[in-house]
Amino acid sequence: MSVIVRNLAKHYGEQKAVNQISFEAKPGRILGFLGPNGAGKSTTMKMLTGYLQPTSGEAEIAGKSVQLAPLEIKKLIGYLPENTPLYLEMYVREFLSFVAETYGLKNVSQRVEEVIKLVGLVQEQHKKIGMLSKGYKQRVGLAQAIIHQPQVLILDEPTSGLDPNQLSDIRALIKNLGSDRTVIISTHIMQEVEALCDDVIIINKGVLVANSSVADLKKEHPTASLEEIFKKLTR
Ligand SMILES: Nc1ncnc2c1ncn2[C@@H]1O[C@H](COP(=O)(O)OP(=O)(O)OP(=O)(O)O)[C@@H](O)[C@H]1O
């Protein structure tokens, strides 16, 4: 299932937070979404998930318009928002069962069991979410994003706050999920792009300044590291 974005824009008064961007994310590939703080990444992701209405332009997932078919779209995508908003008073299993029921899944307890194992939450599964460390909260966020086995994953800084061990576990999980899904992941970590992403888009002040495969971007700038390329394009 492809994600196709055409001339998408979001204006807040005079500010063009996202200014007419177009790109495509393809199945079986992981697209890295990069840009400096305030460039418009989260705003774009919120428009892709139907959480925010665009000022103009359109986003399409599996041939369906996000704006015209918001409920259908929500069944197809898994979304991990920035800062992992969660119900802190709920227990891990209780929360994941609640999310599974919201999606109308059958075999809720079996699926909850599966995702708990998949994201490495077995040790923490009986705790209240509010008691978990940041990294484990992030895992709960990831679990709720994949519980309904969506074909499209939109992950806003999924590895922020993880320790090095957790980082490699979660990256391996995302890589694995990306083998047969469409994944869009925003990040500030260039090693993550190297380790995970097939394609990359870079946004600066609401405008796309790069849109290609990671390999092609490196070919275009043969002597520069990804970090240097990023700096050059976003200054
Ligand atoms: N509700 C809002 N009202 C007004 N301006 C907003 C609103 N939401 C976002 N913005 C502005 O839009 C711009 C883009 O913000 P956005 O959160 O999309 O950036 P980002 O690329 O995700 O940044 P970061 O890397 O820091 O998370 C920023 O200048 C931000 O202040």
TrEMBL record:
PROSITE patterns: ABC_TRANSPORTER_2. InterPro entries: AAA+_ATPase, ABC_transporter-like_ATP-bd, P-loop_NTPase. Residues 3-230 form the ABC transporter domain. Keywords: ATP-binding, Nucleotide-binding, Transport. GO terms for molecular function: ATP binding; ATP hydrolysis activity. Coiled coil: none annotated. Belongs to the ABC transporter superfamily. PANTHER family: ABC TRANSPORTER, ATP-BINDING PROTEIN. This is ABC-2 type transport system ATP-binding protein. The lineage of its organism: Bacteria, Pseudomonadati, Bacteroidota, Sphingobacteriia, Sphingobacteriales.
